[in-house]
Write a structure and sequence with these properties.
The protein is an alpha/beta fold. The protein has 2 domains: about 60 residues, Ubiquitin-like (UB roll), CATH 3.10.20; about 80 residues, 2-Layer Sandwich (Translation Initiation Factor IF3), CATH 3.30.110. It contains 4 helices and 8 strands. The strands form 2 sheets. Strands 2-1-4-3 form a 4-stranded mixed β-sheet. Strands 5-6-8-7 form a 4-stranded mixed β-sheet, covered by helices on one side.
Amino acid sequence: MRLVGDNVEIGVYPISKALNVAQGLELDLVEISPKADPPVCKVIDYKKFLYEQKKREKAIKANATKVVIKEIRFGPQTDEHDFEFKKRHAEKFLKEGAKLKAFVFFKGRSIVYKDQGEILLLKLAQELEEFGKVEQMPQLEGKRMTMFIAPKVVKK
């Protein structure tokens, strides 16, 4: 097997000699690539290696951005004042960097006003154009017509 690692003379050794080298340094012999010809083994402190690997994964996870989704609900016949009020909230959410899920909820027989609900959502998308872009156009799912708007990336 090919032996690599710190404080080790790199070369091809028999398994028993490689194990003796690892034991002499009070470290572990870890197989890195078994499919290579000859297989490659590294002399390392395995517990320390696992600890550092977990630490790296934790740092990567901490730096990952978490997507926040804020919802705004309309009725199919939402008045102009209510629309403006909810639009201002939507602007604030998009400025904060959250995704926006706007939906029109159809109660009872109001499902016959599907076109009004779609017009309402498209009007919202048009008025929020400078703050975000539409990720998903209005889609009817059961008694809800849903649309997603993602915030525009601010260039610094």
